[in-house]
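Bumping my old thread because nobody answered last time. Still need a sequence for this structure:
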């Protein structure tokens, strides 16, 4: 850090992304990517004329992609905001709404970026503890009279709240913004997108990074009442109007046209998750009931750090968080059947050795 950084940012602790090793040496189960490649239609789209005309700026409004999303989710174009990954949409939300005078709450154990954005914008934020089962207690949010950010399913736990709880949270905080981050909703959660027609304070955040195999393309989006969407677009046009590059616009549009391919992949991941949980049970692990493409697990008496390290030495990358409440837990992305078999074998051998 230099002496020139603004006083406001001196203490900011940046988000630390999961490791992205550039060799294929690892079985990579650490950043919740899809183990499946993009659909053939997406691969064709990124080399199409429109995508490859890189001498031109991309279309800033992403009209075709917005219309395709509006059609897919049964809303209007005016309800859609595109972001460079859903991280950028979350950035827009914090920039637009959560400052020193407009408090926001989110769980103590959730997606780590919420805290980073809170610090970046000097938001007045409070981290609400998950209950002893690492669950979000809806009563902590119903009628809270504060802005709210919830990942549903939550990360890294994978536990989802039902639609009726989400509706109670949204309807009981009419004077505050409720952001529901549905990055993992396609793996078994219940989307609250239908509620946006009823509530003017709800922003649903989604991504192409997980269920649609496009983490590298960086496309996320928000669905919200048109007034809120206009607010978020105001931030987009005040920072980076060309935030979605031409190739990614074409890739995301083609992905929406490959629904069958991606829903089959989601079903495979759900099957692999269920089979892997049965293996974990046999191996004596505790795990949380996941509605996402990852499982949060620990084995009593086994150090999370040691198990993480030993797995890495054995060529398998998973994610561990340096938070005392969950330091012995590992977040394991669900990969292919073969990858999960290899991991289960390694877990069996290593936990036996580490006894
Ligand atoms: N929300 C949650 C809960 C996440 O886990 C992630 C992935 N790290 C994101 C949002 C951001 O994903 P992306 O920017 O790739 O859309």
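Sorry it took so long. Here it is:
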């Amino acid at each position: 850090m230099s002496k020139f950084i603004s006083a406001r940012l001196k203490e900011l602790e940046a988000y630390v992304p999961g490791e992205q090793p550039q060799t294929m040496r690892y079985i990579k189960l650490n950043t919740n990517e899809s183990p499946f490649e993009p659909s053939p239609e997406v691969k064709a789209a990124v080399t199409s004329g429109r995508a490859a005309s890189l001498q031109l700026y991309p279309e800033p409004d992403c009209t075709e992609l917005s219309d395709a999303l509006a059609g897919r989710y049964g809303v209007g174009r005016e309800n859609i905001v595109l972001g460079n990954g859903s991280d950028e949409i979350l950035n827009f939300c914090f920039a637009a709404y959560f400052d020193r005078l407009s408090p926001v709450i989110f769980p103590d154990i959730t997606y780590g970026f919420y805290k980073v954005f809170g610090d970046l914008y000097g938001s007045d934020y409070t981290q609400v503890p998950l209950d002893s089962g690492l669950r979000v207690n809806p009563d902590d949010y119903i009628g809270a009279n504060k802005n709210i950010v919830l990942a549903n399913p939550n990360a890294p736990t994978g536990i989802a709240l039902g639609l009726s709880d989400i509706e109670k949270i949204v309807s009981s905080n009419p004077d505050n913004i409720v952001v529901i981050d549905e990055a993992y909703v396609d793996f078994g959660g219940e989307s609250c997108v239908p509620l946006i027609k009823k509530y003017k304070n709800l922003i649903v955040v989604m991504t192409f990074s997980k269920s649609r195999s496009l983490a590298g393309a960086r496309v996320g989006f928000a669905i919200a009442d048109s007034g809120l969407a206009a607010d978020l677009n105001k931030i987009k046009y005040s920072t980076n109007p060309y935030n979605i590059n031409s190739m990614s616009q074409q890739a995301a549009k083609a992905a929406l046209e490959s629904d069958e391919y991606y829903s089959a992949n989601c079903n495979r991941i759900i099957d692999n998750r269920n089979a892997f949980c049965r293996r974990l049970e046999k191996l004596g692990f505790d795990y949380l009931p996941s509605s996402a493409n990852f499982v949060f697990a620990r084995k009593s008496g086994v150090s999370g750090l040691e198990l993480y390290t030993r797995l890495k030495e054995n060529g398998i990358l998973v994610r561990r968080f340096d938070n005392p409440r969950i330091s012995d837990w590992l977040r394991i992305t669900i990969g292919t059947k073969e990858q999960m078999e290899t991991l289960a074998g390694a877990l069996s051998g290593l936990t036996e050795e580490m006894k």
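The chain has two domains: 7-37+260-353, 48-257. Let me know if any region looks off to you.
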